[in-house]
Amino acid sequence: MVLIAAIGAVALQDFTEAAAVSFLFAISSTLESLANARARNALASLVNVRTENAHVLNENTKEGVVLPASAVMVGMILMVASGETIPCDGEHVFGTANFHGMNHVMNALTSLHCTFNKTVKALSSKVAQQSTSRN
Questions:
Q1: Helix (H, G, I), strand (E, B), or coil: what is residue 62?
Q2: Cα distances (Å, whole numbers) of residue 64 to 17, 92, 129, 135
Q3: pLDDT value at position 33?
Q4: Residue 80 pLDDT more than 90?
Q5: What pTM was estimated for this model as a whole?
Q6: I need a labelling partner for 134 at 20 to 30 A (CA). Which of 23, 36, 56, 74 fits?
Q7: Which residues fall within 8 angstroms of residue 128, CB to CB, at 6 or more apart?
Q8: 69 and 54 Cβ atoms separated by less than 8 Å
Q9: For residue 99, what is the DSSP state?
Q10: How far is CA 75 from the centre of its chain?
């Protein structure tokens, strides 16, 4: 389309218009390349945020077990120590937490910064002991 506009401008001997169309096309192409590079980098940083392992509470022994994050099933209780990345989606069921780790994911896409705190009473005393001993 830009080529047709440039050829038409040259045919009408409006060389300034042909140059302007070509220049604007070059700028738009450069901006598109920069936007694609930024999106590619954001997606690459998301891959780096992913955690490989999850600390899961064993229902029978009430002790923590390390599993691959891909093996975590719905209904399992995870134990996340201070500074760890949360390996999967879930519901906060015990303790006080300052959730800013997930913002690394959001920050990679949107450059927004937000932190929120949450406190939940203990699930059980055994779980509370296990959780505090890991920190």
A1: coil
A2: 70, 17, 11, 13
A3: 97
A4: no
A5: 0.45
A6: 74
A7: 94, 95, 122
A8: yes
A9: E
A10: 23
d(CA 2, CA 96): 58
Question: Of 96, 101, 127, 130, whose CA–CA distance to 113 is shortest?
Answer: 101
As to burial, measured by CB atoms within 10 angstroms (0-12 exposed, 13-18 middle, 19+ buried), residue 79 is buried
Domain ranges, ordered by start, for the chain: 2-48, 53-134
Give the C-alpha distances (Å, rounded to integers) separating 126 from 34, 74, 102, 123: 53, 21, 27, 9
Six-digit token pair at 90? 């879930």
Angle between helices 15-49 and 2-11 (to 10 degrees): 170
DSSP assignment, residue 52? S
Over pLDDT 90: what percentage of the chain? 21
Q: Which two tokens stand for residue 84?
A: 């760890």
